[in-house]
Design a protein that fits this description.
There is one protein chain. This protein is mainly alpha-helical. It has helices at about 1-30, 35-55, 60-85, 90-120. About 90% of the residues lie in helices and about 0% in strands.
């Protein structure tokens, strides 16, 4: 049973890491892609975030997940506002941060709602 949990934990880590890497890549190349392609890829990131939120975070991990991801969302939002003004790299940084937000915000919302429901049950 412990071996199965290790495999699941690795899959969770890989799923989240893959989502962040895809968000980084999309953010860097989105300026060169047609808007319709960016919209589809962003929608896939949102869907991946929903899947991570529903299936990859256990109730015991929810509190830490919500705390840390909320911190990431806050820093990403504030960073995007400030870094967007940088010459040459600003637009790329904003695009990367927006892609990361598209991935992690849905998972944060899902995990937060699940946590509130679990609190209401207890």
């Amino acid at each position: 049973m412990a071996e199965g949990k290790k495999v699941v934990n690795k899959m969770i880590a890989y799923a989240f890491t893959t989502g962040v890497v895809v968000a980084l890549i999309l953010g860097l190349i989105s300026a060169r892609l047609p808007e319709s392609v960016v919209a589809v890829l962003s929608s896939l990131l949102i869907l991946a975030g929903i899947i991570v939120g529903f299936f990859n975070i256990t109730p015991t991990e929810a509190k830490d997940y919500v705390f840390y991801v909320a911190a990431i969302v806050l820093v990403t939002y504030l960073g995007g506002n400030n870094l967007g003004n940088l010459y040459l790299v600003g637009p790329y940084l904003v695009s990367v941060l927006n892609s990361i937000m598209a991935f992690i915000l849905p998972s944060l919302i899902i995990v937060g709602i699940k946590a509130v429901i679990n609190l209401a049950k207890n």
